[in-house]
Every structure is written in C-alpha cells, then in structure tokens.
Amino acid sequence: MPSLASDITIPLGSGPLGQLYYALDLECAPGSPATVAISRACSLSQVGSVVIYDGSTPRPTTSSGASGYSQPLWSLAWNATGSDLYGAYNQGGSSPAVFLSVNSNGAQLAASSQPLMMDNIQYSALSGYVYGYDGQIFDPSTNTTANRLPVRVVGGEIFSGENTPMAVDDTLGMAWLVADMVNNPSQQMTIEAFDLRTNALLGSIAVRM
Predict the structure, then answer these.
(1) Domain assignments of the chain as residue spans, ordered by start
(2) Using CB atoms within 10 A as the burial measure, which of 72, 92, 149, 165 is most buried?
(3) Residue 60 and residue 84 in contact, taking contact as beta carbons nearer than 8 Å
C-alpha cells in the first residue's frame, strides 16, 4: 500500500463463449491474505462461478451456486475459520443464501436456504451470523432468519434491490449500514450504527449527497 505498487495479478479467464470473466466480489480468507475467494461472471444474467485462488493460482474445484438460479453470486463472506463461504444473489427480491464448503481442492456447494433478501452480505465471527443489506440477520447454523437490525430510515424503507453498503467490526462489536430513504428528493442518506451483541441501534447521522 505505501508505494501503491501492484502485488499480484489474478487471471480470471474466460467463459464458455470466450467472454472474459470479471470479478463481482473478492474476499480474503481469514488469517490467509494470499488466499482469496472470487465470484466471477461474464454477465449478470449468466451463471458465474466461485473460485478459490492461492496467489494467482486457482484451485480446481469451483461452484456456480444454487441449482435453478441463472445469475452469479453477487456477494461472498467467509466464516471465522475459512472452512466455509456464504454467498448471496443480487436480484432485487428473494433468493437463497448459499453455503459453500472450502478445502484444498476449492469450493463446492454444500447447501442453500429458503428464499430471502440478502444481496450484499457480511459475516460476524462475534455473533456467528450473516448480515444482509437491509439489516436481515441470518443464522447459518440453523439455516434460518434469526432477527433483523432495527433499521430506522425516516420516510420509509430501503429501496428494494439497493446494494446498501454495510461494514461489520467484531473488535468494536458494531455494524454500520448506509441507508437510502425512499422517495427522498434531497438525496439524503443515513449512516446507522448497531450493537452486534444486542442488535440495538446505537446512533445515526444524516449524509447529504
């Protein structure tokens, strides 16, 4: 980072029709910064694949996600040990969360949930939960929705299908979510902070675009 020099280049390859893959999400494995999971695709309307790379070398086993879904996985999150990945689609509606098992050969589909709304996801080792873009909390140990962060946006709900930025910090025990207000002519957004242990709203601040 200090010199902004390139470290490695990861070749993503091309799809069956020769179209180049591009990365939808890239996530470093916990404790192993040289190991990354990449969700790659040629198009948002075509099935993509999740590939585990060690440096620039791909592991041979890849996963395309849940059966019956013709879109690539939009967002990935590792569990605390690096043995599993969670994936979510970006469909502006309900779609399953995906569980991928990771080993030395790569990633393969282990299970998928009932349809729910997640889109961009973050995992917390502190709580053991996966957090979705609209505050939905998913418990991967039971494959069920556990709760929801009390997102309080003045003027309504978050736009359905918006890719709302979220950050989770287990050291501080907090999550932050940037929310759009529906039909808001001033383009004001709200940053809200939550306690990962209790899900309580700790505070918020308005940000004008």
Answers:
(1) 1-116
(2) 72
(3) no
